Amino acid sequence: MAKQLAKLPPFTMPSSYNSDEMAKACEEAQGAEYLYTGKVPKKGQRVFLHIDYTNRAGDESHGRMMGIVTNVFNAPPPGSYALYKGETADPSVKKQPPLAGAEEGSQLARKLTREAAIIQLGGVHGQRVAIEVALVPGENKEHPRLDGVWRVTLVLNDNMYSVWVVD
User: Fold this and answer.
1) What are the tens digits of pLDDT across the range 90-105?
2) b vs e for 1-27, b when ≥16 Cβ sit within 10 Å of the residue's Cβ?
3) What is the pLDDT of residues 56-111, one digit of tens each?
4) For residue 97, which of 57, 86, 91, 153 sits 20 to 30 Å off, Cα-Cα?
5) CA-CA distance, 135 to 67, in Å (whole number)?
6) What is the distance between the alpha carbons of residues 33 and 42, in angstroms, rounded to a whole number?
7) With contact defined as beta carbons under 8 Å apart, do 8 and 167 qualify?
8) What DSSP character marks residue 139?
């Protein structure tokens, strides 16, 4: 019987991210297309997620998950999360609260045009993708709290080293 999909549980931490290095290594080894910084997201790309979470003893633990992009949401309009070089704010666009770790807003938006950000990062600050992930084979005994298939949203936060982070 197939496991029911669920959102990541509340014991996971916001420091979880799509690992650029592992995604690039997997892409090279497998020949399958992966999402990482600099790649425009598209449905069907694979992901390699580094998950930080609190284990049953209350300690911080780390797990690895792999999965697939199931949906790519439209890029946020100018001014909702960031105004890129040369853009002006549209008064009808609702400004969104800052992303975690980006309380001062997008650092790159002040320097780059929207098109340059897409080339450099693969998207713009605040863009989201939906993914479905499961533990890397062999890790379910070590990380039983994460066993199953999970629905996760990643958000592009250009203030982070690996820009696709768990939302």
Assistant:
1) 889 998 888 877 777 7
2) eeeeeeebeeebeebbbbbbebbbebb
3) 777 788 888 899 999 999 999 998 998 999 998 888 999 888 887 777 778 888 89
4) 86
5) 9
6) 10
7) no
8) -
